[in-house]
Amino acid sequence: MFKRIFYWGLSAAVLSTVACIIYDRVYFFAMETDYSRLINAGSLASINLLSCLLATGGFWLMKKWFGNKAELIFNLAFTILSFASIIIPIAATLPLDVAYPELFPGLAVPMHFFPAMAWYTLRPLFMTEPVQDKQ
Questions:
Q1: How many other CB atoms are there within 10 angstroms of residue 3's CB atom?
Q2: Terminal C-alpha separation, the chain
Q3: Could you write out the DSSP letters of every residue in 17-57?
Q4: pLDDT of the residue at 126
Q5: Counting beta carbons within 10 angstroms of the beta carbon of residue 111, is it exposed (0 to 12), middle (13 to 18) or buried (19 or more)?
Q6: What is the model's pLDDT at position 95?
Q7: Model pTM?
Q8: From 17, 75, 113, 131, which residue has the greatest number of CB atoms within 10 Å?
Q9: How far is the C-alpha of 98 from the C-alpha of 35, rounded, in Å?
Q10: Is the pLDDT of residue 132 over 80?
Q11: DSSP code string of 55-108
């Protein structure tokens, strides 16, 4: 079970990293602002890998502790933590030589939701329990 959850988290990390890099490039061309000194492909890959592997460990522990209710509790916690984490780019103090610092949250805030979206998107590939239909 842990191996399946681990590969799920690793796949979610790759998917969310790709999404972040694409969003970073789209934002760069749309807003003509360059934040590559603050957010680059290496930092995006490492933070997405870290967050998805932490989610992997959290999901595995919740599966052990809570059984059937684990996915509900985990999804709620992951969503709440994703929303709570947006305070980081909003409160960030940027270097004085960065142009258009007011546009930085528009780049960074949506990226905080990409690991959770990737996790939820890949769920059907890794967790294939049949849905119980109550009649």
A1: 7
A2: 30
A3: HHHHHHHHHHHHHHH----TTTS-HHHHHHHHHHHHHHHHH
A4: 82
A5: buried
A6: 82
A7: 0.85
A8: 17
A9: 8
A10: no
A11: HHHHHHHHHHHHGGGHHHHHHHHHHHHHHHTTHHHHH----TT-S-GGGHHHHH
Given a contact cutoff of 8 angstroms between Cβ atoms, the answer to whether 48 and 13 are in contact is yes
Helices 114-126, 70-84: axis angle to 10 degrees equals 160
Distances 14 to 41, 75, 104 between C-alpha atoms, Å: 12, 19, 23
Contact 118, 12 (CB under 8 A): yes
Assess contact for 30 and 125: CB atoms under 8 A.
Answer: no
Percent of the chain at pLDDT > 90 equals: 62
Q: Which of 55, 107, 57 is nearest to 86 (CA)?
A: 107
pLDDT digits (tens, 9 = 90+) for 19-56: 999 999 999 999 988 888 888 999 999 999 999 999 99
| CA geometry: angle 44, 119, 39, nearest 5 deg | 10
Residue 130: count other Cβ atoms within 10 Å of its Cβ.
5
